């Protein structure tokens, strides 16, 4: 779905804890408990994505959470994976859990990090920082994938070297989503439309770059037809190079900014 705008042109947050289906509650509660045990200064936990808007499909959708601490902490990928594994084992289910850790200072001072809290997240524990974050229009402030693609690609290439095929596929599919959302960000300001839905991203991109539609659709198809990780990365890299060139033309003064939410979990 497209995220709607209010009468002043600001993005409306469709996420609401009351929209979360009951099947997700045990997983969310377990992960909140994990965060409370690990971080004594835990301030908040948010959920985002389709689970937070009530559109998630059990067995297909990811569970995306953001833990906010009062102090800065090093990103502990090992603990995050262990916390996810413990949660899934307790509830005997298989769900892709994406848990990001950030600080209150980061989301209140970094516009690209605050974007996810303000426009796409629902509070499930603790203090709500969203009212303290200024609203967002559809402009470069709201874009993060577009400015991180090269680093994302490098991260994935390093991580898949020598890892299992299952883990490699997981990382590549996450990168695919980032490419599609970056493609949307190339045209979002001109179109004044914003979505995270991969298919909609591809369709909107095609209105402005019809000559690149076939290449973008081949990336979209990887979400259901990923067979060879090496071939997939080659196709993705070629498109990322083109996106980076076009991004520099459209946003020459916008410096790359690594938002906390864009960690690939590797």
TrEMBL record:
Species, as recorded: Streptomyces luteolifulvus
SUPFAM superfamilies in alphabetical order: Nucleotidyltransferase
InterPro entries noted in UniProt: NT_sf, Polymerase_NTP_transf_dom
Name of protein: Nucleotidyltransferase domain-containing protein
UniProt superkingdom: Bacteria
Domain Polymerase nucleotidyl transferase: 29-94
Pfam family, one: NTP_transf_2
Transferase listed as a keyword: yes
Annotated GO MF terms: nucleotidyltransferase activity
Alphabetically ordered keywords of this record: Transferase
Keyword Oxidoreductase part of the UniProt annotation: no
């Amino acid at each position: 779905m497209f995220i709607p705008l209010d009468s002043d042109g600001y993005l409306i947050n469709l996420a609401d804890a009351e929209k979360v289906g009951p099947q997700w509650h045990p997983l969310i509660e377990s992960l909140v408990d994990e965060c409370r045990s690990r971080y004594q200064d835990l301030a908040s936990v948010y959920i985002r994505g389709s689970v937070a808007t009530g559109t998630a499909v059990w067995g297909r959708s990811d569970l995306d959470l953001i833990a906010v601490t009062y102090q800065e902490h090093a990103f502990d990928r090992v603990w995050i994976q262990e916390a996810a594994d413990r949660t899934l084992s307790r509830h005997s289910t298989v769900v892709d859990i994406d848990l990001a850790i950030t600080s209150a200072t980061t989301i209140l001072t970094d516009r690209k990090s605050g974007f996810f809290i303000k426009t796409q997240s629902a509070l499930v524990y603790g203090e709500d920082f969203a009212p303290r974050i200024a609203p967002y229009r559809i402009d470069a402030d709201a874009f993060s994938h577009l400015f991180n693609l090269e680093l994302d690609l490098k991260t994935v290439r390093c991580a898949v070297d020598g890892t299992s095929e299952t883990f490699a596929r997981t990382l590549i599919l996450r990168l695919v989503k980032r490419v599609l959302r970056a493609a949307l960000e190339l045209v979002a300001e001109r179109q004044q439309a914003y979505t995270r839905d991969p298919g909609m991203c591809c369709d909107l991109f095609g209105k402005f770059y019809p000559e690149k539609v076939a290449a973008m659709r081949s990336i979209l198809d990887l979400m259901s037809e990923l067979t060879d990780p090496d071939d997939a990365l080659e196709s993705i890299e070629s498109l990322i190079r083109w996106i980076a060139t076009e991004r520099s033309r459209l946003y020459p003064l916008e410096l790359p900014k690594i938002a906390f939410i864009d960690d690939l979990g590797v």
